Amino acid sequence: MTPKAVPLDSVLTFEPGIRLKHDTVRDRYVIQGPEVLIELNETGTAIMKEIDGISELSAVIDRLAITFSVDPATITVDVSEFCTALVMKRVLTK
Predict the structure, then answer these.
(1) Is 81 contained in some domain?
(2) What is the count of structural domains for the chain?
(3) What is the pLDDT of residue 35?
(4) What is the side-by-side strand order in the sheet with 28-33?
(5) Does any domain span residue 8?
(6) What is the pLDDT of residues 21-57, one digit of tens each?
(7) What is the model's pTM?
(8) Maximum distance among all alpha carbons in the chain?
């Protein structure tokens, strides 16, 4: 069963106890929480840095599109799927 994608009007925030942290040993960002450690690549880090608990996902996509000089339509599916996966893993909540 394919999970339903997070709607673009969703305001995402970190689940309680979950945080984005720079891991100096690995020199990369990780998602850290109780029994959770997810290493992020550059793209994942950029997305997670934009999750502020205030902005709708569509605004996050717009900011990322400006940052990386791409059309928002080009990255919408990828960002939505990434965030949906993190909601399913209980890292993000809407």
Answers:
(1) yes
(2) 1
(3) 87
(4) 19-23, 28-33, 36-39
(5) no
(6) 998 988 999 999 998 999 999 999 999 999 999 999 9
(7) 0.91
(8) 38
**Domain membership flag for residue 2:** no
Who has greater pLDDT, 16 or 4? Answer: 16
> Half-sphere exposure of 56 toward its Cβ, with a 13 Å CA cutoff?
8
Tokens representing 22 are 């720079």
**Which pair of tokens denotes residue 54?**
């205030």
Whose tokens are 């925030």? That residue is 13
* Dihedrals phi, psi of 38, to nearest 5 degrees: -120, 120
pLDDT band at 2 (very low <50, low <70, confident <90, very high): low
> Which CATH number goes with the domain that contains 72?
1.10.10.1150
Strand partners, 20: 31
Domain that holds residue 76: 13-93
